[in-house]
Automatic annotation (TrEMBL):
This is General transcription and DNA repair factor IIH subunit TFB4. The keyword Zinc applies. Keywords: DNA damage, DNA repair, Metal-binding, Nucleus, Transcription, Transcription regulation, Zinc, Zinc-finger. Component of the 7-subunit TFIIH core complex composed of XPB/SSL2, XPD/RAD3, SSL1, TFB1, TFB2, TFB4 and TFB5, which is active in NER. The core complex associates with the 3-subunit CTD-kinase module TFIIK composed of CCL1, KIN28 and TFB3 to form the 10-subunit holoenzyme (holo-TFIIH) active in transcription. Component of the general transcription and DNA repair factor IIH (TFIIH) core complex, which is involved in general and transcription-coupled nucleotide excision repair (NER) of damaged DNA and, when complexed to TFIIK, in RNA transcription by RNA polymerase II. In NER, TFIIH acts by opening DNA around the lesion to allow the excision of the damaged oligonucleotide and its replacement by a new DNA fragment. In transcription, TFIIH has an essential role in transcription initiation. GO terms for cellular component: nucleotide-excision repair factor 3 complex; transcription factor TFIIH core complex; transcription factor TFIIH holo complex. One of its GO terms (biological process) is transcription initiation at RNA polymerase II promoter. One of its GO terms (molecular function) is zinc ion binding. PANTHER family: GENERAL TRANSCRIPTION FACTOR IIH SUBUNIT 3, TRANSCRIPTION INITIATION FACTOR IIH TFIIH , POLYPEPTIDE 3-RELATED. It comes from Talaromyces atroroseus. Gene3D superfamilies: von Willebrand factor, type A domain. The keyword Iron-sulfur does not apply. It holds the Pfam family Tfb4. It is found in: Nucleus.
């Protein structure tokens, strides 16, 4: 029984507060949101998400956020806007200069709002409006979503911010790269690096993401290497690859039974950052769908053929036995008889030794 002592929670108060970067990938496939309209309209979901973002920004004044839309045909930035370097024409006066009247022209109607909240809300809603306005009929009927592109954008943004942060704060990321859980060891005066995580709010079904299998898996492996957890908030359907993403990166996966409670789920399950998560029992998933998609047709397969050289997966033996990826000629013998993985059913011999289970010692926090 541990003594009740909360001092470890406050050991970093003296040092510089370590910021946390939250990159949100919002699936805005219009088709999928239309199906969800009765339970959770898109406008309400977006409002909930903005409240969640505000909560994240309020946790620490150095916290950062990035929002990326995964639309049906492309991925786009919602915040920070990378295409708003030049002011829109209606803000310019007759000479083409920006009107300087002491306050930001758009956020003038909510002066009472904390400024970082206002900026995020303004840009996100404005960019969503632009994105939806530019959506044509082909986009609406498409059931796919550009998850791979959005994940890549999130990763590149995180990478850039991490490097910038390390440069300005002179912090080497040695300790974070060595830590197994992605959380850097806290040791007094050492200021911590930027901690990043990705949250995917997903509504599209998994069957259409099979053609993006390879780029999605590459993003997952990149996150795994960089210790970036991918959290998944699944509002409808179930996505094979997103389960694998959160499982491989030790993120939180939740498939919401009641999408109307989105805000509550976001606040309870997804708000804690990596440091807080060490002290929490997180919702985890045991029945992860580990199926892969074949490289030849992008079909999700239960049993496939794997090239022994490049590990490409095929749903059927490739023509002439030549691997479609690396071109190696493969010896495919009696494959029609029985797949090798099901050849023998051997009973596992249970060897239970008394007292063999060694309890893992709980790490004692170093002051
Ligand atoms: Zn195939
Ligand atoms: Zn191969």
């Amino acid at each position: 029984m541990n003594a009740v002592d909360a001092s470890e929670h406050y050991e970093n108060v003296a040092s510089e507060p370590a910021p946390s970067l939250l990159a949100i990938v919002l699936d805005i496939n219009p088709h999928a949101w239309a199906l969800l309209e009765e339970q959770l309209p898109f406008s309400k979901a977006l409002a909930n998400l903005l409240v969640f973002i505000n909560a994240h920004l309020a946790c620490n004044y150095t916290n950062e956020v990035a929002v990326i839309a995964s639309h049906s045909q492309r991925a786009a930035w919602l915040y920070p806007s990378h295409n708003q370097q030049k002011p829109s024409p209606n803000l310019l006066d007759a000479d083409g200069d920006v009107e300087m009247n002491g306050h930001a022209p758009r956020s003038s109607n909510n002066n009472n709002m904390y400024r970082p909240f206002g900026i995020v809300e303004e840009q996100v809603t404005e960019n969503v409006r632009e994105l939806l306005a530019s959506t044509d009929a082909a986009d609406v009927s498409a059931t796919s979503t550009m998850m791979a592109g959005a994940l890549t954008l999130a990763l590149s943004h995180i990478n850039r911010r991490t490097m910038t942060w390390a440069e300005t704060h002179g912090n080497s990321n040695i300790d974070t790269s060595n830590a197994p859980t992605g959380s850097s060891t806290t040791s007094g005066s050492v200021s911590l690096g930027l901690q990043s995580r990705i949250l995917i709010v997903s509504v599209s079904s998994s069957t259409d993401s099979a053609h993006q299998y390879i780029p999605i898996m590459n993003s997952i492996f990149a996150c795994q290497r960089l210790h970036i957890p991918i959290d998944v908030c699944k509002l409808s359907g179930d996505a094979v690859f997103l389960q694998q993403a959160s499982d491989a990166t030790r993120g939180v996966y939740m498939s919401l039974k009641e999408p109307r409670g989105l805000l509550q789920y976001l606040m309870m399950a997804f708000l804690p950052d990596q440091r807080s998560r060490k002290h929490l029992i997180l919702p985890s998933r045991v029945d992860v769908d580990f199926r892969a998609a074949c490289f030849c047709h992008r079909r999700v397969v239960n049993i496939g053929w794997v090239c022994s050289i490049c590990l490409s997966i095929f749903c059927e033996p490739p023509e002439n036995g030549d691997c479609l990826t690396c071109g190696t000629h493969l010896e495919i013998g009696e494959y029609e008889l029985r797949p090798a993985v099901l050849a023998k059913k051997r009973k596992k011999r249970k060897t239970r030794l008394n007292g063999s289970a060694t309890p893992t010692p709980t790490p004692t926090p170093t002051a």
